[in-house]
Design a protein that fits this description.
With 120 residues, the protein is mainly α. It has one domain (10-116). Helices cover 70% and strands 0% of the residues. It contains five helices and no strands. The protein has helices at residues 18-41, 46-64, 70-75, 79-94, 98-116. Helix 1 runs antiparallel to helix 2, helix 1 (18-41) runs antiparallel to helix 5 (98-116) and helix 4 (79-94) packs antiparallel against helix 5. The longest helix is centred in the N-terminal third of the chain and has 24 residues, at 18-41.
């Protein structure tokens, strides 16, 4: 769980892992969308939005597997979305925002798929 990200090289997944590939793509693009909209629309939670945006770009880079970057792989381990989910939930307790809620839901979905992921 803490050594490998579940979205690594899912772009080149086999036909049997097509559902995992589509789940990874939708999670990554939703994270990018919610974090960008949150950055543009309001000034609340900008730090969290920047972190989620950076994480989602790293996941997108790993999803496509353009080239292997060890530091990106280290940042994309499955523990990161779990930690970002908890941080987002604490931020939601302070102030409610729909974009923040979207980021937290996608992080929770990312964490769920990370916990359930198997290579086969």
């Amino acid at each position: 769980m803490f050594s490998k990200g579940w979205k690594f090289n899912m772009f080149n997944a086999t036909q049997e892992q097509w559902n995992k590939s589509m789940a990874a793509a939708s999670i990554v693009f939703l994270q990018v969308a919610f974090s960008l909209i949150s950055l543009v629309m309001n000034e609340q939670h900008q730090c969290y939005s920047i972190v989620v945006f950076t994480y989602s770009l790293i996941c997108l880079f790993s999803f496509i597997n353009a080239s292997y970057v060890r530091d990106f792989d280290a940042l994309q381990v499955n523990f990161t979305p779990i930690l970002l989910s908890f941080v987002g939930m604490f931020a939601l307790q302070k102030t409610f925002d729909f974009m923040l809620l979207g980021m937290v839901i996608t992080m929770i979905a990312d964490s769920y798929f990370a916990l359930r992921y198997k290579d086969t």
